[in-house]
Amino acid sequence: MKRHLQLSIKQLSGFYADGSISPRTVVDHSLDDAIKLKRLNAFIRLSPEKALHQAKESDHRYENKEQLGVLDGVPIAIKDNFCTKELTTTCASRMLSNFVPPFNATVCERLANAGAVLIGKTNMDQFAMGSGTVDSIFGPSKNIWSNDLVDKWHIAGGSSGGSATAVAAGICYAAIGSDTGGSTRNPAAYCGVVGLKPTYGLISRHGLIPLVNSMDVPGIFARNVGDCLDVLNAIAGPDDRDSTTIRKPFRKIDMSFNEELDLRNVRIGIPKEYHCEGLSNEVLETWMKVADLLEDSGAHVHQVSLPNTSASIFVYSILNQCEVASNMARYDGIEYGHRAEIESSTEELYANTRAEGFNTVVKTRILTGNYFLLRKNYHKYFEKALRVRRLISEDFKRVFETPKNDENIVDVLLTPTTLTDAPLYNDFVSQSNRDQCAVQDFCTQPANMAGIPAISIPIRLSKRGLPIGLQLMSKSLNEEMLLRVAGWIEQQVEFDCLANEQIYAARS
């Protein structure tokens, strides 16, 4: 294992500054590792020319003591549903297999401005519709914690499984994913890394190819909470090109994770509805142990209720498919993307293009969404789902915000991220995409409907030697408190994803 892989981003920057190691050397190692670990299928494509050019520029800035970005020379990967100028962006689909964007997504632009080095685009479920990264036209991503990467391997989670795998395998220091119903937190939990879903609108969606506009959020993967914060500070803030971003200027979070957090001033809620059917004993035990750890250290821990949680998976499914039906209508074979060869009429062109360009999962969601949006069904499904979504959001507001003097009010909610550790691939694909998403996203998608920030942090290994993660949620724009509590837990449990023996075996 290369020494620099064990460093945090701040430590790496320090070594760059004193000349102990150069960005070019680290980037060379990252690209080399990505090739050695190609069996994981974390990347759809690498970008060596771009990466080496950016590394050379970073070398120059360090050597000449020029102004440096917070991520200067740091290798980062980006999920393949973010537009990257002059670099193919496919959404892991045939529909966009040859799409080369003429512009950068705001997230990519801000990473570049912060000095980050893009080493490649990561694998995902097609158009981000899934929770396993098993529906990509480039094949599934594999979980680095699997004992057998040939026959009996575990899923990486989804839909941002490639990004989580790249970070967990030590190929890069951080990665960008997207999170619509848990697509950052789910793979983070399965792969043993940190996964942050910020407040809706805190990070620009400009250039993120949409799945569900009202829930999509760019997400961040890193090996520790401090690195996650560094990336957040680099990419958050209003964007004139995205009307859904929060207009208030983003105040960078400046805090030290070595500074002791006084838990006597922190109130932790344990939502009873998250103790649900299908929750494994190991995840439940982990959840309770961390709750006890917080309470024993002075935090006020008590049970709370989010009564509409049980309805959230149905609401999410309806709203997801309705917005998918709308968003996928742009892929018609005329403006960009795949175009069918048979086009005797406009209608036939549309039909054949979409039949060839989309997989079964995407087509099913389009058809179902259009059914829900029919005039005869609109009030019965779509409008009713919107009303229940409001109730789910109000559940969170009640426990976080009102009334101010209520003893039941909390600062942070502690829940499982997933119900189990990472399933075996063969077990996962034996069920339908819809059924798997209903199970895998149970704990994560309510935060998307409410627009609140949430983070998954790795806690320990299961009996099968697979990571188990827990989720923290807080009120909108309360990322600082969320990250402080997450950082405290991280220090107590001391989980090290790079201690994974499978990384060494896969590199050999």
UniProtKB/TrEMBL annotation:
Q: Which organism is it from?
A: Bactrocera dorsalis
Q: What class of enzyme is it?
A: ligase
UniProt keywords (A-Z) are:
ATP-binding, Ligase, Mitochondrion, Nucleotide-binding, Protein biosynthesis
Which catalytic reaction applies to this protein? Answer: L-glutamyl-tRNA(Gln) + L-glutamine + ATP + H2O = L-glutaminyl-tRNA(Gln) + L-glutamate + ADP + phosphate + H(+)
Asked if the keyword Ribonucleoprotein belongs to this entry, the reply reads no
What Gene3D superfamilies does the database record attribute to this sequence?
Answer: Amidase signature (AS) domain (3.90.1300.10)
Protein name (Swiss-Prot/TrEMBL):
Glutamyl-tRNA(Gln) amidotransferase subunit A, mitochondrial
Subunit (UniProt): Subunit of the heterotrimeric GatCAB amidotransferase (AdT) complex, composed of A, B and C subunits.
Q: What is the lineage of its organism?
A: Eukaryota, Metazoa, Ecdysozoa, Arthropoda, Hexapoda
Which InterPro entries does the record match to this protein?
A: Amidase, Amidase_dom, AS_sf, GatA
**UniProt similarity note:** Belongs to the amidase family. GatA subfamily.
| A matching Pfam family | Amidase
Domain named Amidase is located at 32-483
